[in-house]
Amino acid sequence: MKKIIFLTYLCLITIIALGAxxxxxxxxxxIDLIESKSTQIPFYITNNESYDQxxxxxxxxxNDIFFIDYPQEIRLKPYETKMVVFDISSLKQxxxxxxxxxxxxxxxxxxxxxxxxxxxxxxxIEINLLEKNFHPVIRFNSYDFEILFGEEKGMIxxxxxxxNSNMKLDFWGNFRVFTKDNILVSEKMLxxxxxxxxxxxxxxxxNIFLEKYLIPDKYQFRVEIYYGYKSFFQERYxxxxxxxxxxxxxxxxxxxxxxxxxxxxxxxxxxxMSSREYITLPQETSFYILNNDFVTLxxxxxxxxxxxxxxxxxxxxxxxxxxxxxxxKAYDKKKVNLIVxxxxxxxxxxxxxxxxxxxxxVENSMMDSIRIPIILDFGHNDYKISQxxxxxxxxxxxxxxxxxxxxxxxxxxxxxxxxxxxxxKKWVDKIGRQVGDNIYFxxxxxxxxxxxxxINEEFEVEIGIDKLIIDVEYYKGPNREILSKETYILEx
Length: 492
Hints:
single chain, Immunoglobulin-like, 4 domains, 5-stranded mixed β-sheet, 59% strand
């Protein structure tokens, strides 16, 4: 419940502050009271109007943990900024995270009918009070595992961390699976740098993913969780649970579990002009195929084509995979070598990028295969992109929010692939700045030559937003080198 109130309040801060003539340097501040009785928090309040304004500061929180001293009223001259200090003292030694809600109330001119109107601007102070010998209570729950047979193959262990304390806590640690003989099968780490934060008396659901299919047998799931607040304290929680993998679990849909150590292959094919023609040298690379299954598999490799423009297909006769067919024992891996040799090709006709897909397929299985995209770059790259952007108001969601649709069409008119990143910013002219977080649309796969993509995305926009600023960036190659940057402004 606290989490819902907290997020709703932050949303209201953004919405209500849009049309305000008074501006705060920050609408949310967090402080720590560590073995300390008091602290001071400064806020800077700015009058953005050409006339004097009287601002009343009011608290909307009831609490018996803190005494808060602050000026109840301030006067600001036109375009003046003043610092207002909140003196906060703890009255009780009760460790926890507390949210104190305030608002600025101003009376401003409105129109001829209503001479004046009151405007309330909310802001929030988070206080983390930590006393000596504080030991928060947490709990970890793990539920029955699930087996995935689809595009993502493996096992999922649905779990949950519960923060049963009054303090906001950070969690990190490791999750391990052992055999009945105490042999480590798999380990997943949640590092301290990527720790998850959980508010007081809230929980966080986790899906711990194991890429392997386990041999039917008895196993143990061991969890070691560390938790604390920043660097002030750290404690440990241990959880252990036995589980069984039975043979009939795989009966419903038997899918073999293959993986590769790479996502794609990108090779530059060098061309040098001799006295008569272009010449080149063979290019080599390699990758591994992993059998994450408990049965032995026979694997066939090949170059295939799917959704690739006909004039951009890699010619199979210039590629060699070795080995083309091999056996993989349970949990073993095999190195596959790829040789690309265009010495006998007419290189003068090859410019830009050409595409294909390396398939590693389980023998006698129609569904179990790995598909590794391959791009060959022959140079003389031509990057031509055409695009159209527009927006439209779809409907009113409530008194504070509209639904807006962003429409875009991007076409690759060049001879090489491109990636794109679209960043949408919501802009308010009156305060001259962005409001809210960026909205992103990006390409996970490259846009091939001749291909086009249409984007129709709906998202919520608060009342008072004047325009959308669309930043579009295009990238090339495996290192995502930036090609171009363009900005569109869409009036709402």
